[in-house]
Amino acid sequence: MNESMFEMNQSNAEPTSVLVSIIISTYNRANTISKPIDSVLAQTYPHFELIIIDDGSTDNTDEVVAAYHDPRIIYKWVKNGERSRARNIGISMSQGKYIAFMDSDDWFMPHKLSFQVNAMEANPEVGLALGGWIVVDENGRKILSSHPWQWIQSQPNLEQWLFSATATLHSVLVRKTWFDKVTGFDPELNMAEDIELWMRLSLAGCQTMWTEDYVAAYVVHDSNSLRDWSNVKRGRMKFLNTIFQNPQICEGLTVSKDEVYARFHLDLAWMAFAENLVPQGQQELAQAVELHPKYVAQNADEIRQSIIDYSQHYMVSAPIQFVESVFDNLPPKLAFLQQYRRQTLGIALLSQAWRGREQGEYGRVRQTITRAIWYTPNCLQNRGVWSLLFQAFVGRPFRWALQKG
User: Most exposed among 94, 235, 295, 384, judged by the fewest C-beta atoms under 10 Å?
Assistant: First the structure.
């Protein structure tokens, strides 16, 4: 579906009163669950039920929820059985035409429901609406924003679900009838379970559309499950083993199983280096080479770009040190990547400078832009870099300065 069609449908859409079911699974999050609840109650769209499935909490989560005297909130405590099972219980309890999901430490933008519900009401053939999201720290400070519609078409293929940050759990809205055609979350998975579900929906013929705005916030904190490298590796390997037991997925992929595993091992290597787990990073790189030496040898640009991309990951606190660590520890069969070291550092620094500008941190921009130019002087051929350089030292956009002059 093209953008103009979406805009036309939106402009003609009538206000709707269909019910939306929002499902939150939680476990011992009494200290954070108020934020997601508040974000639901603040929705500009009032026709919802909020189903909170407490997955065996032993803290006072029940008391926190009970303090909200809103009949739209439904609370259910169940014996601990992991979040996929909890979400499936929520789905079975839901009465809405549409279903949204959220973890117990994230939150919705106020227009999330109205924006996506009206879009799907105007496009009844669509079963899954995808939106953008922002990543924030525990204090609500924005770290980055993600707008995947700029690089992914309206109907993501299986490879994009696997390798691209296509959606987060709370950035989507699902038409409930699709849960009559495809079973819910795989209860055996505790990581990437949402991706596995979206892949099955795609294979079943579920159409998707982009609702091109930021609809949710993902909160980064020290207790995020993605910060435990060993846990992430176990979870991701279990996810891969699960999807490759599905014959439809195997047939639908255009890349080999070995390439998929090799690319996942590369990503685990980057995560290990970012956490200063050098031996583990070296081991993951070696496994990637062993699994698919041809992919590794013939995709230098793609691998280099993945290093740059990961250097900007919200969990990487020292991007340049991360890049240095990767190149310092390349195994012999990846030594050919050393020729890209300087360029990779320069581009990573440029990415840092752009992010600093987005956050209004011009001191950070000054620190990184000059180093980026030293590493990659040809970047000065880009007019955007000159604009960034001006902002770094003047503290305001070049266009603004011209207007005021």
Answer: 384
